[in-house]
Amino acid sequence: GESVGLHLPTLSVQEGDNSIINCAYSNSASDYFIWYKQESGKGPQFIIDIRSNMDKRQGQRVTVLLNKTVKHLSLQIAATQPGDSAVYFCAEKGGLGTSYGKLTFGQGTILTVHP
Amino acid sequence: DAGVTQSPTHLIKTRGQQVTLRCSPKSGHDTVSWYQQALGQGPQFIFQYYEEEERQRGNFPDRFSGHQFPNYSSELNVNALLLGDSALYLCASSSVGTGHTDTQYFGPGTRLTVL
How close B26 gets to chain A, by Cα (Å)? Predict the structure, then answer.
């Protein structure tokens, strides 16, 4: 079936470094993508989203890149801080009429930031 | 502005019992989605409610049912509990109507343990 997956399950970086978390998706009909951050014992927290008519979107210290040709999504975190340590999930939603409302999540990447 | 709230925080049940989990959406949101998150996995879509009707359903048995009230709050009911139902149950809200947003904002979750 259709799925969203991650290339790397864990990522360790030093404080101040830039982090890149990757995600591959298989549903070519997906038109909306979201990155969530989940800390232990908490619900997923929205970080940034992007629609399929864009290839880049920037937020505060975060950038999401979308490559529809190879069905690849990435999250870049600038100047990573210890508070960024968490599990990061990418999620996708298909167009209306295909998977209205349903988010399909990947397995997640554990980001550990060392002081 | 209150975010998504869920109750209870934790719950312990025995096999065969029934459980009801509750969710209040973010202010201004009219759509509630429920997800099950097993330990070490990404959230899995259970179903979504809009206008008090189930609009979309994931691959979950009929033991899982829900309801949405006129004030947009929602309940998730699980009957005949199995050990495998132990998970974090997440509620997410979004808006289809006025102020439409595809972004789903998650609550803190209810940790269900089935013994």
Answer: 13
E strand segments, chain B: 5-7, 10-13, 19-24, 31-37, 44-50, 53-57, 64-68, 74-78, 87-95, 101-106, 110-114
Query: How far is A85 from chain B, CA to nearest CA, in Å?
Result: 16
The answer to whether residue A54 scores a pLDDT higher than 90 is yes
Query: Is A34 in contact with B94 (Cβ distance < 8 A)?
Result: no
Distance in angstroms (rounded) separating the CA atoms of residues B18 and B77: 7
Residues of chain A in contact with residue B21, where contact means CB-CB under 8 angstroms, are: none
Amino acid identity of residue B112, one-letter, is: L
Consecutive 10-residue runs of chain B (115 residues): their mean pLDDT?
A: 91 98 94 94 94 93 97 98 98 78 90 98
CB contact under 8 A, B43 and A108: no
Q: What is the pLDDT of residue B73?
A: 97
Residue A1 has a CB neighbour count (10 Å cut-off) of 6
In this predicted model, what pLDDT tens digit does every residue of B86-99 receive, in sequence order?
A: 999 999 999 876 55
Residue numbers in A near B44 (CB within 8 A): 105
| pLDDT confidence tier of residue A6, bands split at 50, 70 and 90 | very low
pLDDT score of A27: 85
**Do residues B73 and B63 make contact, with C-beta atoms less than 8 angstroms apart?**
no
Task: Please indicate whether, in this complex, the C-beta atoms of B109 and A108 are within 8 angstroms of each other.
Answer: no
